[in-house]
């Protein structure tokens, strides 16, 4: 597990609590050190501060998403709403706002690891014309091309597609897919992830045919 933060006290406290929870933790004080370590290591999860000197957290997040779908927990300040939104768009799995409770962060990290490793309850492959969703391998093929999705993107798509044409509110989708504590659950998280899914699976994302918006209610999957 990697903890990246330029504040020594924050970094040390987070690392200490995660180690008490049974995790092996590597600390990085800045973006360059984090990228150097990531070049030869594959962490189970990354706790990543957004505001870093030199290479910032969002740049590191882009690098991580180019490599795969390792769970990422962002650390942000209360004034960094735009960074939280951009982070979610880039594929962050969760965020926590400074100052935060180390115990809460530990629990949320534990939940992220559990959910990223857990199999999807329904194991049958879903077929919809040019779209295939395989929960056993967590692979999606759209128009003959494999689509790379983050764990949250896959879970959201599978949840919607498992109940075609059923309308889900954003809160229902938060409850089903996200493990963040209710205090930090933000319905905008769902909106951002739906937008990213549309970019990846829709032929024309600006005119979505698979994931439609039911105005004033939520979203549904069109078979």
Descriptive account of the structure:
The protein is of the alpha/beta class and 223 residues long. It folds into two domains: 116 residues, Rossmann fold (3-Layer(aba) Sandwich), CATH 3.40.50.2300; 96 residues, Winged helix-like DNA-binding domain superfamily/Winged helix DNA-binding domain (Arc Repressor Mutant, subunit A), CATH 1.10.10. Helix content is 41%, strand content 20%. The protein contains eight helices and twelve strands. Strand 3, helix 3 and strand 4 form a beta-alpha-beta unit. The protein is elongated and about 50 Å long.
Features:
8 helices, about 40% helix, 2 domains, Rossmann fold, about 220 residues, Arc Repressor Mutant, subunit A, 12 strands, single chain, 4-stranded antiparallel sheet, elongated, 5-stranded parallel sheet, alpha/beta
In N-to-C order, the SSE pattern is: EHEHEHEHEHEEEEHEHHEE
CATH architecture of the largest domain: 3-Layer(aba) Sandwich
The Cα radius of gyration reads 18 Å
The low-confidence runs, each spanning 5 or more residues with pLDDT under 50, are: none
What percent strand?
15-25%
What is the spatial order of strands in the main beta sheet?
2-1-3-4-5
Helix content: 40-55%
**Alpha-carbon distance between the termini?**
39 Å
Instruction: Please summarize the sheet with the most strands.
Output: 5 strands, parallel
